[in-house]
Amino acid sequence: MADPSTAYDDAARERWVLEPGKRPGRTAFQRDRARVLHSAALRRLAGKTQVVVPGESPPDDRQVPRTRLTHSLECGQIGRELGQALGCDADLVEAACLAHDLGHPPFGHTGEEALDEAARACGGFEGNAQSLRLLTRLEPKTFASPGAGAAVRSVGLNLTRAGLDAVLKYPWPRTEGRRAYGVYEDDLDVFAWVRRGAPEGRRSLEAQVMDWSDDVAYSVHDFEDAVYSGRLDLDRLTDPGERAEVLALAASRYILAPEDELDEALARLLGTEFWPKGFDASRRAQAGLKNTTSSLIGRFCLAAEVETRAFHGPVPGGRYAADLLVPREARVECAVLKALTAYYVMGSAELERRRGRQRAIVSDLVAMLAAGAPETLDPALRADHTAARNDAARLRVVVDQVASLTDAAAVALHRALASAG
Questions:
Q1: What is the per-residue pLDDT across 36-81, written as a single tens digit (0 to 9) for each?
Q2: What's the confidence (pLDDT) of residue 308?
């Protein structure tokens, strides 16, 4: 069988730590995908919030809402097909899609904001930077042989250079004026290795495909969950005031666009033949909603594929051979879908009260774990804490612990530590 990764050079397939020969017939990127798929970090995403907190659907709600795990799997399917259509290695793109949310903490973006505040003394917290840290340090798979005077070090899953580069949504460290970043100061050595030979600040095509697939997956699937749950009643969009509030939210949170452009995007969506109407949760209505989901994914992915091919040629190729081009109309429609879910699902007073409790849990956990460390930490992290060179490095290990927790584990650990104290 021909190796589909032959379009990628040896540097793209290189690993941080050289490994002995593996079973023939498998490509380097197939191994990357398998390592992410079989990781404990990926399994933990089943217990981390996407929109609805896992296990907190009403007792009579037959819906099983998406988690970070199901989102990652769906993102992987979308990215695999879009990347393959553009000449990228399909396994490489899927591996990046599966791995892109591994570093996210409990309680979704609420947890991320609270952990960033609690981690100020060690440089802050960012889910994307945590993903790189997890892939290259925290997830146990491979260890580096000790060099002269150096200690044995975990190198995480030891993915290929191209595999790690494809996860880098923000290929730069924390800098003034940039809210998002992809690497902590502690991990700059492996980051420099990953980015060797890459244009500064430019994302690989695989990373761009992963990023758009992420946008498509969560905007479309969260919209589907919101409609199915009954929280999003699309008939309410006939109210001009409510519609204006949704569009204002889209402009303030998701995309810089004037109201008339956003209104036109919503009108296009409402005018499609597949838009759900009168959803009553019957089997026929559920099938119609599934058709909406499939059609929206196809609409957004095909728009990017056609635009990219029109500019770069029929099969652009991987890494830095091309950039993914997404038409403005598709990006605005995607932002409107995000705003619909945010307005009708995430904007309730009850959810805001819950987010307040979640922020307190995360802040308390960092303080309580730090006060009792290393004994309060997981066994896998105690040696890191003991070896840490200063207070900032020790706090980073505590942050690693909190970031790894599922929503339920964070609540349970908080309860246990508070009771013990």
A1: 999 999 999 999 876 654 444 444 445 567 889 999 999 999 999 9
A2: 97
**Claim to verify: residue 333 and residue 291 sit in the same structural domain:** yes
Domain-embedded: residue 153: yes
Q: Is residue 47 part of a domain?
A: yes
Amino acid at 247: L
Give the relative orientation of helices 90-99 and 28-37 as an angle to the nearest 10 degrees.
30
Cα angle 378, 383, 384; round to 5:
90
* Confidence (pLDDT) at 339: 96
- Residue 199: per-residue pLDDT: 95
**Residue 170 sits in the same domain as residue 241:** no
End-to-end CA distance of the chain: 60
The alpha carbon torsion through 127, 133, 139, 141 (nearest 10 deg) reads: 150
Specify the number of domains making up the chain: 2
User: What CA–CA distance (Å, rounded) separates 238 from 337?
Assistant: 16
As a whole number, mean pLDDT of residues 413-420 equals 95
Q: Which residue has the tokens 């290795």?
A: 193
CATH number at 49 reads 1.10.3210.10
Amino acid identity of residue 26, one-letter, is R
Residue pLDDT, tens place only, 231-274: 888 888 889 999 999 999 999 999 999 999 999 999 999 999 99
Of 228, 140, 156, 241, the residue nearest 193 (C-alpha) = 156
Residue 371 and residue 379: Cα distance in Å, rounded? Answer: 16
Q: What angle do CA 39, 158, 134 make, to 5 degrees?
A: 55
CA distance 213 to 87: 16
**Domain assignment of residue 164, given as a range:** 4-95+127-194
- Give ∠ CA 223-81-25 in degrees, rounded to 5: 140
Same domain, 184 and 133: yes
The pTM of this model reads 0.93
